[in-house]
Amino acid sequence: AAPAPVDIVEASGPPQIGKPEVSTASEVYSSRPYVDGARRLVNGEVRPWEGPCADVVSPVFEAETGRAVVIGRQATLSPAEAQEACDAAAAAWDRGRGTWPSRTLEQRVSAVEALVARLQQIRADIVRVLQWEICKNDADAAKEFDRTMEYIAASVASARQSAKDGHLCTDGVHAEVRRSPVGVMMNFGPLNYPFNETYATLIPALLMGNCAVMKIPNTGGLAHFLTMDAYAECFPPGVVNFVSGRGRDTMPPVMGTGKVDLLAFVGSSKTADQVVRYHPQPHRLRTLLSLDGKNLGIVLPDADLDLATRECLVGSTSYNGQRCTAIKLIMVHSSVAEEFTAKFCRLVSGLVAGSPFGSASITPLPLPDKPEYLKGLVEDAQAHGAAVINECGGQIDRSLYFPAVVYPVTSEMKLWTEEQFGPVIPIAKYESIEEVYSYLKATPSGQQVSIFTRFLGASAGGALAPQLAELVDVCALSTCRVNVNAQCQRGPDNYPFAGRRSSALGTVSVSEVLRAVSVETMVASKQPAAIAHVCASSSVFA
């Protein structure tokens, strides 16, 4: 999901860096959430959990005591409970004979719209939890919820449209074609967009008639516990089931049952490979994977540097750079590298860092070990000849990490290849465009690139200069989206969001997800009246 806009200003003084804390006397603190996740959703019931739980600790601290704030707890389910959830989904599916897959599309739409109405009632609670747990600022937390609701509405409209376009006739053979469910989905959401990214595959799967098991992320998952009652009220038993706890304990037995037909996963390619291998028949496992992203910003010699620095700033620092679509390496032509880095650092110094309650662009990091990891990446680059070139770059205050601009980054450094997924911004310089081509050829990632140019050398007829045309083609065949004079990003949601190599498997967009979680089925005959008669009372072909 795209973040809310970042305030872009050139600093006239040192960066404004607050602290990752709130006063215990503040209204923000008094309204802090506590989500009791000692429960589980299985087979249509929200059941209390008497077993072990894990405290959920916010990256925000108490100003007076320095203590971290506990904002809830999550049930740590065992393999037995995880398998029970999978069994419930499989029973609800019943090889296509269950209540949910047997409903018409409009009946399923009604259930989803009832869910949306229930979620709207607890919007403020969900937004508050997103702020405290994963430290999205006011605008970003609200936008995650609102955009998710918009995505659901668009999915409903797309599903209805596809049902209208199902009549075919070729060579005298008439057919009614519909999208039908596949079976049981195992759904993994991420920590950075736990609500939006999860629902981007879960809701389309439900609309198509699938049943689901959702693995709640250990970080960023508290908001899902707030939704359990809504799912229990809006869907038949077993259609949606939640699993929380350690993935290494709960996922092998679930996947090992062989009852999972669909896998929707957002995370690292390494983890995705492991999850797929747990399935006894991986050849029949449909997958929709959003994985690694080391997106490249390419600044050409003729680039508008004011525009390029602003887009690269937003692309690399929005939500602290914790987005798969973030620009994670900037390659700048040597002729403009010094000017670019100077302008860029002034913009970075204009970012406001602090608590997530307000409009700060840089907020605390949700993972407790992330600041030290980022520090290690920077130290590795420094050991190989790079430097932190911006004021206060890499300054750490517990969970708060002010962006570090590292320059010049070379292939010997970890930042050249590792996806930092945080506010460290590596900048490299190149002499020949062949160096850019070599990077694109070698990288295991293949999601997006951003090219910055004024199109100098274009012919009077509008054709691109041969060198620029070649660059566009190389980027298009190495990635799945070429952004011109704009940051890398996902939206709009009706556009295809995909990747090559280790970045993705499958395409996420409003229409494409519906296709990915369903299969075409049809009734065919040389007698159109026969088709009309057969389909008249069918829930699939209604």
Which terms summarize this structure?
542 residues; alpha/beta; 7-stranded mixed sheet; 6-stranded mixed sheet; 22% strand
Describe this structure in words.
By secondary structure, the chain is an alpha/beta fold. It contains 17 helices and 26 strands. Strands 18-21-22-16-15-23-24 form a seven-stranded mixed sheet, sandwiched between helices. Strands 12-11-10-13-14-25 form a six-stranded mixed sheet, sandwiched between helices. Strands 2-6-7-3 form a four-stranded mixed sheet. Strand 4 (39-42) and strand 5 (45-48) form a beta hairpin. The protein is globular.
Brief digest:
This protein is α/β, with parallel strands linked by helices and 542 residues long. It has 17 helices and 26 strands.
Radius of gyration: 25 Å
Unreliable stretches: none
Sheet bearing the most strands, described?
7 strands, mixed
What is the mean pLDDT? 95
Share in β-strands: 15-25%
Structural class comes to alpha/beta
Shape: globular
> How far from one another are the termini?
34 Å
- Alpha plus pi helix count: 17
Helical content, roughly?
25-40%
Number of extended strands:
26
Q: What is the secondary structure topology, with strand pairs?
A:
Blueprint: E1 16-17, E2 21-22, H1 27-30, E3 35-37, E4 39-42, E5 45-48, E6 53-62, E7 68-75, H2 79-93, H3 105-121, H4 123-134, H5 138-164, E8 167-170, E9 173-181, E10 184-188, H6 196-207, E11 211-215, H7 222-225, H8 228-234, E12 240-243, H9 247-256, E13 262-266, H10 269-277, E14 286-290, E15 295-299, H11 305-317, E16 327-333, H12 334-349, E17 352-353, H13 370-383, E18 387-388, E19 396-397, E20 400-401, E21 404-407, E22 424-430, H14 433-442, E23 448-452, H15 466-478, E24 481-484, E25 504-505, H16 510-516, E26 518-525, H17 528-535
Parallel strand pairs: 1-17, 2-6, 3-7, 10-11, 10-13, 11-12, 13-14, 15-16, 15-23, 16-22, 21-22, 23-24
Antiparallel strand pairs: 4-5, 6-7, 8-9, 9-26, 14-25, 18-21, 19-20
